[in-house]
Sequence to fold (1344 residues):
Amino acid sequence: MHPLNDLTPAEINAARGLVQSLHGSETLIFKAITLDEPRKQEMVAYLVAEMNGQRAVAPPRLAYCVYYLKSSDTLMTTWINLTTHAIARSEPADPTFHGNVDFDEVQQVEDMVMQDPTVLAEIAKLQLPDHLTVVAEAWGFGSDGGIDDRHRQYQVYMFVSETNNLDSNHYARPLNFSPVVDPVRMVVTRIEMLPTGVDDARAEGVTPYKDLGPNEYIPEAQTLREDLKPLTVAQPEGASFTIDGDNVLRWQKWHFRIGFNYREGIVLRDVRYDNQPLFYRMSLSEMTVPYADPRSPYFRKQAFDLGDVGAGLVANDLRLGCDCLGAIAYLDGWISDRKGRPLKKDNAVCIHEQDNGIGWKHTNYRTGRACVVRNRELVIQSILTVSNYEYILAFKFNQAGQIDYEVRATGILSTCAIDENQTVPFGTIVHPGVLATHHQHILSLRLDPALGSYTSGNQLAYTETTPIPHDAAHGNPHGNGYVSGTTTVPVSGGLDLNTERGRIFSIQNPSIRNPVNGLPASYKIHSPPLQKMLAAPDSIHFRRAEFADHEIYVTKYNEDELFSGGKFTNQSQGGTGIKTWVARQDRVEDEDIVVWVQFGINHVPRIEDFPVMPVEILTVSLKPVNFFTRNPAIDVPPSTQERNCSVRVEVGKEVSGGAHGAAACCERKSLL
Amino acid sequence: MHPLNDLTPAEINAARGLVQSLHGSETLIFKAITLDEPRKQEMVAYLVAEMNGQRAVAPPRLAYCVYYLKSSDTLMTTWINLTTHAIARSEPADPTFHGNVDFDEVQQVEDMVMQDPTVLAEIAKLQLPDHLTVVAEAWGFGSDGGIDDRHRQYQVYMFVSETNNLDSNHYARPLNFSPVVDPVRMVVTRIEMLPTGVDDARAEGVTPYKDLGPNEYIPEAQTLREDLKPLTVAQPEGASFTIDGDNVLRWQKWHFRIGFNYREGIVLRDVRYDNQPLFYRMSLSEMTVPYADPRSPYFRKQAFDLGDVGAGLVANDLRLGCDCLGAIAYLDGWISDRKGRPLKKDNAVCIHEQDNGIGWKHTNYRTGRACVVRNRELVIQSILTVSNYEYILAFKFNQAGQIDYEVRATGILSTCAIDENQTVPFGTIVHPGVLATHHQHILSLRLDPALGSYTSGNQLAYTETTPIPHDAAHGNPHGNGYVSGTTTVPVSGGLDLNTERGRIFSIQNPSIRNPVNGLPASYKIHSPPLQKMLAAPDSIHFRRAEFADHEIYVTKYNEDELFSGGKFTNQSQGGTGIKTWVARQDRVEDEDIVVWVQFGINHVPRIEDFPVMPVEILTVSLKPVNFFTRNPAIDVPPSTQERNCSVRVEVGKEVSGGAHGAAACCERKSLL
Fold:
């Protein structure tokens, strides 16, 4: 068993058994049983030995377990040594910490709400016609800064749907009342009327429902386009990648291990190119989604989609032919259910190659010879459904040594009821009576680099380009001159992009110099500029989203610092994440460092984002800078008609299907 | 003949004949014969009638001709009325204006240089071995602000190549001397020694060549990868688009006319979605590439790739299977040669569809039902080779009403010789003895909108998101609230992005309100932040690049204002472009406006960009905002295995080709 492999079902069972043995006959409600990764120092020794073909001593296998004691609602954290089959450590979590939402509990809450007499009394007041019914949707309660958020709660939003079709888009029919639920006692503690105007004012009570009509996304509710002809990807010799039994992927000089856990979803480890280490570990660390609505209870709406729920927990079952084209591999993931049993997430990760246009080209105008290669990419993808919303998360590798982390935001806007003819400056009307509130998505990508070596230090630097003063004395008599300069970040902290100075962050290994130009082996980080957290710096929302105020953070590596928003984010109060770690003011030059990249969007909804949103794409790119000695994609085979099998479309007349396109296989007559 | 069609060969011939008739037996050197577009007012009347199925009066066909009188090197501009077969207007250009570089002349210059005795004397001093030879490469002279740039010149850079292979990468072997050429007399006027250290100091003379070795990009010089398996795109029913004899393209509710000219390359006109006008005209207006090197003569290096040369002039002949996958249509372009004859640019534009991953997805966690569509795109592409460098320029349309303008920068860095072991802060050593200088690429995209109507006004606006003050008095007691606000730009001028305020520019039609939410019909502009021109504001380089200091410009529409850097950029002095137009301080609210989007990269070369650069991708996106009433892609047919024909790759063992991939055609057994 490789030390970096995910927990197996047998290991999950073993861990659960040992945990239960600690607590006798107490009913336990598990939130997670997951791999507790080996200490980095031991693991690096193992990887180095492994790369050198030496006998490596495997660190022990450990499991980390989070669960409630049902009788007391005490949140426990227990570490199991699976190698020695022993309990390594067990302790209750801080009483202000809450476990993540899980979908078993969400469904229990929703079912209970729909049977609660006080809720049913409100529903009755709606006087719904037979073809309409009510749907409950449980949200995390959020935090209000300690007023009402010490115990775990759900805020349940209510919607109307079609009685005979639960795939009707209920987000187009929000209601104006909201039960609050205590999930420990599993009771409705109160029903809140929701504001539907510009301020906190709200109706006295529920009134008969006025149906302003549906807005469906399901295909049978549409008149579908009929003029889109098939486009498929053919890989007649199969995929160019291999995945072994330990989920080690090899493709085009790349090598890495694919892990999967309930919280981060995909985790890549031991990422190498041409057998040179680049990253020890890469994963999405956290995402916060604060909403702009200042009214109560909406002011509490701030999701932490990884910490509050879990990217692995809500990963879609990806089906062949739905989410990718071509030759696709699927990996299942193993998480645990509420009873601590192994739960298989079918097809949680998909892997495929794709063509991304031209990779490089040059035409020699003297000889007319064009050299061109295509840009083949490898995609490691997972798709999350967090209630209404979807995130398509992918690591993408190319043949030029580049790694992209791509986020596609899609799914359905979180909506609430608004009075007819009312507008508010913190949201957009997307359907009659339906408000979609502005919100930010701020993601935090964790990069644990090992550029060129596992055993030497790395550092964060930034390069800026600035004008030379415009005078002859500075050697710039004509005023065109400008220079680049690179600064190493000495101490842990948060940093920001600066377009005016052309600031580009990079991770460097100062011990490895480029043999041609002497510059340090580096990877630069291209990330889109982030509008930082708009919540006030003295607000609870800002305090919770510890990472959301800088585009880049750098910390010195420390065990157990994986989650920049803190380990427990559900109804969190802040103070347990990256702000604490940078406050140590560690030296981070030529050290074992971790780099955190924050990026996102401020989503001011447009009506075109409803009833389901076209993907909004965000990409963070990591590109080699003086790491290699030339374009790493220089050895990609040329793009030719023999390889590409393209088909010419006739122009100048209305093209009819089939006339020109019958040759789906390769025309062997090359035009080159 | 549709008034917006490009000039036909017959029209080019007719125009040349009329021009020649003006000048008797004088030898003319033509720079361009191109369509002079109809005045907009007439053209709009025509388009509106056409859309309404009414009889439309066609404006006259006009040609615009630029040429030199060879005996005097006087640059002439003449307009021909092709409808009446008459000369409409003829006048010499301002004597400080110069025509564009053309590749006939470049090759004449290069051939002449290689036969010039003074140049040959320098080459002899290199004492090259037989297997090496010298290659000359002519560059525009640039401007020095009036010192030495009043007459037209070429700066010729010299390189070493392999004698028996002119596709050897000579940019890896730059020489340290440079002939300056007068192209009118076609003579070398001087030979400049080039600086090879940190400042203007330069060698006394040419010395025997020290070969520091090749750095080739051609495939036969590489050990090519052998593990990349074929990936092709199959469109068994052909393409989903049609192109008629007037180059009107129809695809997925889109409609537009594809034009092509020597200067801008692709021009799209009358762009509509679902028969609603969106843009009257879209094109790349200009690009400037100023270099950071302050030394002489490099300080003059500042290309205007459209104005100095021409995007259509240097468009690649795109070959089936080389530059795209799938079912591809090619359009030829017609330009003129130096004698004013029609010159066909074969396959100058290619058109194809591509798959860009998921378009939208939602999974209902209650029912487990996933709805997902793919994101089909239509690409209208042209590839330019400007000496060493390539630009892949594409308009991309999707099914959600979005238009992207994508630029892929590739090709070979412009290099110069540098002393061994020397470094400079304004460039990167990419090969022994080879410096690639920092440079900016600043592009200017011209958008002539007609959002929703040709006859009502448009305006530029920007939306910002800002926090509500954190107090109860402002209705934001918890500090999370923020609001969006939109400002209309009242007067022509330049504006900038502002990430901190989340500033998003949009084009609006204030006369058309969204029927659901009452907001103006708009398209927003997503463009990457631009590091503005780094040359000093009082430099000649800055003055020439009139558009390079703001991410957005807005002007009131005026005839003959197409080129934001001025009509004649070769050795230009500034003062004829967008700065002049915005100085009119026109009102631009609810008017006929033009919006100019500036974007680009500051290219600090990395060694991985040599010997040929992996594509650097820049995208400007135009997205509907409250223009439609819902997601325009809601009616895209679902993504299913029946349509997508994907193939499952086995995991957990080394995958061998063919084992799993033989089924290149569709597995009919859907797993859904």
